[in-house]
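@channel anyone free to eyeball this complex?
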Amino acid sequence: MRLAYPTSIKIIRVPCTGKVDVLYFLRALEKGADGAYAVGCMEGDCHFNSGNLRARKRVEQVQKILDTIGIGGERVQMYNLSSSEGPLFAQYAVEMDERIRKLGPNPIKKHKKKAA
Amino acid sequence: MIVADKKPIEEIIDEIKEHERILILGCNECVTVCEAGGKKEVGVLASALRMYFLNEGKEVKVDEKTLERQCDHEYLEEIRSMIDQYDAVVSLACGVGVQFTAEKYHSMPVYPGVNTCFMVVTEERGLWTERCQGCGECILARTGAICPVSRCAKRVLNGPCGGSTDGKCEINKEIDCAWQLIVDRLKALDRLDDYEKISPLKDWSTDRAGGPRKVIREDVQQ
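replying in thread with the prediction:
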């Protein structure tokens, strides 16, 4: 298909979104990522039964934490698609890229620079 | 085990905002099992706090450490060599661990990171229910191993009371009547005659009524 998606997206592969922990998102943002999102299988289609449902709950936890500490929960999202939906994968990447560009850079980065 | 629930991050921030070098101290025992204060929760809280302080433009050092237990001298000794690097500790252990850490490091402010609840079983992941109140005089032998002290809202020792309806407690339709459970269990054990025996007055001096308690075992003391 040779679909294009924004170069700002860095893909980290995991065996199942159930592997994605709250800490993964927090560490990514702490290290300077402007946003992070998980792309899991369709709900009800998880090969491991509930991996994607767990991921969704964890994303919600991270969103709550980020809202509380003033970073903004919208910087973290959960998307679902099936493995044959390449165009949708690219569409979600564009959507996420646009969302983060609207929100602007991760606010902790400017303070990090000052501290350095 | 003891179950604890996470404190809201904003409450913790409010307590520690004046400090500049903070140690988040976890515990590998009960609070790890109930996912409130183990290594992972220490990592999540520390990461969130670091980001919060950075976003506020404050330079605050937030480090992580998780001990095997916070209720024993030997494990708490593990942080003695590093404790001077900090000006506050947030303990994610139960209230016992928080207090013991504070006792051991007398001049160090120690803040609780969890709300300690009660003694429980893990019915399923994310669901813990009370089974024991540590009354100090166990009566489970008489009640088919179901505790009316912890599971009956009124702690009735010769129940059920008049509020028991369809096997449920009058305070909440979702709570089983402990005495219904006891009768059902005694029936299953073919020991229903035990139900006819009247329990004598319980000695509550071994419960909290007698003030702070201690257990002394001279046979194992050194």
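from a first look: The mean pLDDT of chain A is 94.
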